[in-house]
Amino acid sequence: MTVLARAIDATRRYGDVLALDHVSLDLRAGELVGLLGPNGAGKSTLINLFAGLRRPTSGTVELFGGSPLDPVRRRGIGVTPQETGLPESLRVGEITDFVSAHFPDRVGTPELLARFGLGDLARRQVGGLSGGQRRRLAVALAFAGRPRLVFLDEPTTGLDVEARRALWDGIRSFHEEGGTVLLTSHYLEEIEALAERVLVVGSGRVLADDTVGAVRGMVGTRRVSLVADRLPELPGVLAAERAGDRFDLVVSDPDRLVVALVRSGAPFSGLEIRPATLEEAFLALTAEPAAHA
Ligand SMILES: Nc1ncnc2c1ncn2[C@@H]1O[C@H](COP(=O)(O)OP(=O)(O)OP(=O)(O)O)[C@@H](O)[C@H]1O
């Protein structure tokens, strides 16, 4: 599959801060990739390198097989940074027309606005938009020039459920037409809902690069929930919570736990076992090594 963007042993420092530490990865045509990581993990830095906004301190970053600093190559991408300041006095339609005018092949303003659920707001001044509407407009603008590759840094932060879904629909339709997306998110349900591939980053390094299911499997934790008056000492419990008479245990080996529980003779009921959510997997992957002990 064609590689659209590539990092080879890329390191980026800001003074003493090591924001990216020898990162190597490919973004291939048609992928929808989720980039997960705690605050300060290096997600925005990675996007900035691919988008040609920063250079690596060492290593190589390529966009469409060449330098991300090349303006012709940059025309093939769309970017929505975490924070965007749009001119308050311009109308929504004027801004989309203005941005689209920079691209040889563009999406018409009515189509672009409709795709992101903003069709009724073309004549509204930006100053009169809600926070969520502004955010959707900022994301829509990344798609104005029919990019091949889009970088979205926390696209749905601050949006309510309905606005988030409208935005997901816009991202999905771009992807279904063959577009490639890298998006960062703190909403793990968002990564699960949209992405096929997940990159987990922590402290500037890629900790996992796999399918959503595999990342969960890699951590391999399960949640065991049961009702009991009290629990005996049980093997492999990583975390435990109690709400009333229901215990909720995070365990690495649920079979071993259940065998030990039955053997102990302690009465229990309402046993439920389910896979860890991506959030639980993510926390375990990005935890400091001491936390696994
Ligand atoms: N311009 C800068 N000057 C100095 N340090 C910076 C700069 N930009 C980023 N950093 C530092 O580099 C590290 C990685 O930051 P980055 O913004 O890439 O993380 P992130 O994963 O996007 O975080 P968040 O989820 O909070 O947006 C952090 O320690 C951050 O403080």
Automatic annotation (TrEMBL):
PROSITE patterns: ABC_TRANSPORTER_1, ABC_TRANSPORTER_2. Keywords: Antibiotic resistance, ATP-binding, Nucleotide-binding, Transport. It is found in: Cell membrane. GO terms for biological process: response to antibiotic. Pfam families: ABC_tran. It comes from the Bacteria. Gene3D superfamilies: P-loop containing nucleotide triphosphate hydrolases. One of its GO terms (molecular function) is ATP hydrolysis activity. GO terms for cellular component: plasma membrane. Transmembrane segments: none annotated. It is a peripheral membrane protein. Residues 5-228 form the ABC transporter domain. SUPFAM superfamilies: P-loop containing nucleoside triphosphate hydrolases (SSF52540). This is ABC-2 type transport system ATP-binding protein. It comes from Nonomuraea fuscirosea.
